[in-house]
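Sequence design from tokenized structure. All designs in this work follow the same two-part layout: the structure record, then the generated sequence. An example of the structure record is given first.
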């Protein structure tokens, strides 16, 4: 298992001898790919003056310490949902879905019920992320985005300087698939399942229906979910 990232957050600021507490401004959303692996603590390293995700995508899985998109995008209405379709479809083993080892599965994830639109629709930023993990938070299988020549098998260390042509991308430690910040509501990628004997796998995911050109984590809608898979044969 790859080393987990360190993440830090300032909750309150203490000022004056009387220890008066003030609330910090709302966190800014991540409007570009490079923000996801930018440091979450310390001085800003870019002109947009915001901390990064520190390698946390907000899927809610154990690899990311259970941290979810909804932990920053608070007070969401919960009206948006995700349709997650898979080809070939998973088998059924009893009441559980099952993957076949060493099998490529093509995912199409569609946001349904999108209702948050900013005044400038050109910067309507919707985001999606997913990971595939075992119960201990170990990353299972391999990921391939729909951007050319981009996969966890050939993992780029950094985000590209120009926006990729696909709807998804992997980089950094490539532990999860990332939706690219575009005015879209559908993302596609491929997951290749692990080899025989890997056992149960859970797909953890989250998506944000953004409304403020990534200027605030408030006022958005959020959906979180998971999909439990047993090993088939």
């Amino acid at each position: 298992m790859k080393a987990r990232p360190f993440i830090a957050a300032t909750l309150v600021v203490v000022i004056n001898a009387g220890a008066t507490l003030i609330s910090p401004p709302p966190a800014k959303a991540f409007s570009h790919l490079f923000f996801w692996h930018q440091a979450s603590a310390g001085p800003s390293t870019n002109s947009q003056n915001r901390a990064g995700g520190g390698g946390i995508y907000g899927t809610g899985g154990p690899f990311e310490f259970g941290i979810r998109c909804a932990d920053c995008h608070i007070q969401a209405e919960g009206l948006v949902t995700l349709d997650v379709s898979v080809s070939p479809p998973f088998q059924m083993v009893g009441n559980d879905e099952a993957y076949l080892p060493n099998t490529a599965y093509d995912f199409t994830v569609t946001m349904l019920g999108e209702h948050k639109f900013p005044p400038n629709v050109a910067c309507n930023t919707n985001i999606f992320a997913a990971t595939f993990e075992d119960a201990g938070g170990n990353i299972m299988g391999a990921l391939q985005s729909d951007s050319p020549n981009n996969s966890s098998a050939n993992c780029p260390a950094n985000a590209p300087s120009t926006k990729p042509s696909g709807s998804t991308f992997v980089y950094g430690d490539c532990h999860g698939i990332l939706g690219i910040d575009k005015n879209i509501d559908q993302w596609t990628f491929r997951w290749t399942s692990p080899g025989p004997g890997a056992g149960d796998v859970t797909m953890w995911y989250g998506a944000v229906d953004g409304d403020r050109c990534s200027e605030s984590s408030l006022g958005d809608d959020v959906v979180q979910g998971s999909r439990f898979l047993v090993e088939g044969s």
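The longest strand covers residues 221-231. We note this feature because it recurs in several other targets discussed in the main text.
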